[in-house]
């Protein structure tokens, strides 16, 4: 597993982070925050707290409530400062040692760190660090940050972290805590989200505003691309230690990944999704459709937008069973197929004899669409027309959204017509790239300086894919410790 973990092209860090400073119930607040961010990662979670003398940690596989729903666990995590992390499942075997936040005792004291995103040059850095004597405990990207901080010649912890982060490339929102400091860093392009909130005298740094809502905290602002915030007993300070870049926030957060009740970049995710659906209806109308049906849950807001713009009734023509996770988390193709069946059922009463427009956010391998179209037909639909609220996903993400290798992406190997044929729909249309940009508030995509990271649709990667482009750095892997608990 260790060897494979580091060699394949799959991405492993699609996550949610939550940190709080100066709250008497820091661990409970963090558990609640992570619970609100559960959609960002369901494989594992962890919290590290600090009470002024000691650090306390709990890491576990599974959902947040399974572990942090216990008063005993929460009480054991003492202190007023906490950081926590949700980890997304990958196709590889999960390993306990990779559960974040990571912790290390350093010369200056304790240091805990967690991040959301994906670092693109860690194989290279790791090899160098190992040669220089660093002993790695995990296969996580994040550990590279720990070693770089430990080796930094700077005095102050924030300077050590700046020093470390200057070596890394990628998309990241990092939370760290050390000896009474809470620090947040967002990558220079602001690809992954990070917001600042307050609750009375407490400060919060987290991936999405929905994690503030759950504890009644106020959304103060976005952490800016390339910004580092340092929170301590004197309040909050902001720094911009990196070379300035034009913002390239991940447009897929608006399409699929973020929770619809979150605000990202001061925009309601729900509203953006409705706008995308409306734009899609204008670009790719479906004449004489009887009903618009979302593929739940991710297709719901864009289907509402589509139905409103097309003036076609919106119906829940597919019912989702909420007691299973996202289809995507299933590790093998066989189970993934089964997952689709377990998860959705056609609402025959509303489908039979109808010309149905199905709306989903994306087609990745096509498993979901193919099954859903088949299911809707089996329930008696007259015609099934598929509308997708993103452009074709033709390229892998290297910045923290878990996507398969591009060879497995349907849109990489097939034309839209071939995909339509594969999913057996009567028609298929995706929103255009410019239409998507329009829906999220731009006039169009600026080809010379795109306003978002849209690499999954365009292959235009704003940050160097250092490891990916140097396969030789992946070779030097050894088999490692397995199943530590
Ligand atoms: P597929 O069945 O492989 O075509 O996957 C498409 C479905 O997966 C869509 O319904 C999306 O809502 C969902 N999806 C798209 N991207 C991701 C992702 N990165 N992680 C989890 N689910 C995803």
Assign the structural class, choosing from mainly alpha, mainly beta, alpha/beta, alpha+beta, or little secondary structure: alpha+beta
In the sheet with the most strands, the strands line up as 3-2-4-1-10-9-11
Strand segment count: 23
Outline:
globular
Distance between the termini: 15 Å
Low-pLDDT segments, ≥5 res: 1-12
The percentage helix is: 25-40%
Question: How many separate helices?
Answer: 19
Cα radius of gyration in angstroms: 22 Å
**Average pLDDT rating:** 91
CATH superfamily of the largest domain: Aminohydrolase, N-terminal nucleophile (Ntn) domain
Sheet-strand content, in percent, reads 15-25%
Tell me what the CATH architecture of the largest domain is: 4-Layer Sandwich
At the third CATH level, what is the topology name of the largest domain?
A: Glutamine Phosphoribosylpyrophosphate, subunit 1, domain 1
What would the keywords be for this entry?
binds adenosine monophosphate; alpha+beta; Glutamine Phosphoribosylpyrophosphate, subunit 1, domain 1; single chain; 7-stranded antiparallel sheet; disordered N terminus; 6-stranded antiparallel sheet; 2 domains; 485 residues; Rossmann fold
Care to describe what's here?
The chain is an alpha+beta fold and 485 residues long. The chain folds into two domains: 11-248, Aminohydrolase, N-terminal nucleophile (Ntn) domain (Glutamine Phosphoribosylpyrophosphate, subunit 1, domain 1), CATH 3.60.20.10; 267-446, Rossmann fold, CATH 3.40.50. Helix content is 31%, strand content 24%. The chain contains 19 helices and 23 strands. The strands form six sheets. The protein has a seven-stranded antiparallel beta sheet. Strands 5-6-7-8-12-13 form a six-stranded antiparallel beta sheet, with helices on one face. The longest helix has 15 residues, at 269-283. It is globular. The model is unreliable at 1-12 (pLDDT under 50). The structure holds adenosine monophosphate. Adenosine monophosphate (AMP) binds at residues 256, 295, 298, 326, 328, 360-369, 401-403.
């Amino acid at each position: 597993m260790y060897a494979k973990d580091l060699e394949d092209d799959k991405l492993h860090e699609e996550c949610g982070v939550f940190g709080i400073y100066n709250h008497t119930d820091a661990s409970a607040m963090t558990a609640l925050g992570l619970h609100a961010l559960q959609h960002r990662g369901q494989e594992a979670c962890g919290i590290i707290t600090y009470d002024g003398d000691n650090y306390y940690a709990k890491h576990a596989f599974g959902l947040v409530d399974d572990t942090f729903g216990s008063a005993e666990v929460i009480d054991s995590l003492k202190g007023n400062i906490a950081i926590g992390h949700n980890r997304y499942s990958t196709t590889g075997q999960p390993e306990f040692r990779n559960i974040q936040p990571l912790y290390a005792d350093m010369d200056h004291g304790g240091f805990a760190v967690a991040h959301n995103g994906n670092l693109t040059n860690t194989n290279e850095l790791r090899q160098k660090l190992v040669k220089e004597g660093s002993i790695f405990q995990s296969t996580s990207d994040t550990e590279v940050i720990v070693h770089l901080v430990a080796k930094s010649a700077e005095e102050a912890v924030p300077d050590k972290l700046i020093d470390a982060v200057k070596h890394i490339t990628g998309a990241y929102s990092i939370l760290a805590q050390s000896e009474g400091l809470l620090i947040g860093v967002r990558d220079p392009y602001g690809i992954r989200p990070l917001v600042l909130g307050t609750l009375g005298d407490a400060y919060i740094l987290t991936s999405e505003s929905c994690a503030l809502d759950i504890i009644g905290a106020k959304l103060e602002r976005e952490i800016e691309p390339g910004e580092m915030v340092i929170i301590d007993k004197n309040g909050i300070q902001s720094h911009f230690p990196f070379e300035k870049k034009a913002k390239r926030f991940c447009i897929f957060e608006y399409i699929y990944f973020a929770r619809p009740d979150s605000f990202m970049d001061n925009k309601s995710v729900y509203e953006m999704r409705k706008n995308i659906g409306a734009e899609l209806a204008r670009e790719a109308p479906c004449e004489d459709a009887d009903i618009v049906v979302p593929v739940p849950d991710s297709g719901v807001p864009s289907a509402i937008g589509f139905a409103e713009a097309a003036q076609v009734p919106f119906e829940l023509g597919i019912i989702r069973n909420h007691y299973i996770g996202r289809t995507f988390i299933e590790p093998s193709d066989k189970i993934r197929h089964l997952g689709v069946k377990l998860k959705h059922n056609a609402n025959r009463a509303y489908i039979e004899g109808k010309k149905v427009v199905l709306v989903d956010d994306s087609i990745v391998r096509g498993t979901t669409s193919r099954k859903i179209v088949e299911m809707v037909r089996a329930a008696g639909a007259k015609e099934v027309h598929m509308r997708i609220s993103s452009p074709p996903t033709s390229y892998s993400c290297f910045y923290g959204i878990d996507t398969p290798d591009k060879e497995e992406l349907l849109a990489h190997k097939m034309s839209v017509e071939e995909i339509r044929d594969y999913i057996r729909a009567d028609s298929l249309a995706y929103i255009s790239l410019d239409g998507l940009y329009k829906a999220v508030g731009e006039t169009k995509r600026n080809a010379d300086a795109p306003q978002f990271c849209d690499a999954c649709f365009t292959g235009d990667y704003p940050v160097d894919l250092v490891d990916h482009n140097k396969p030789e750095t992946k070779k030097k892997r050894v088999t490692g410790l397995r199943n530590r608990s």
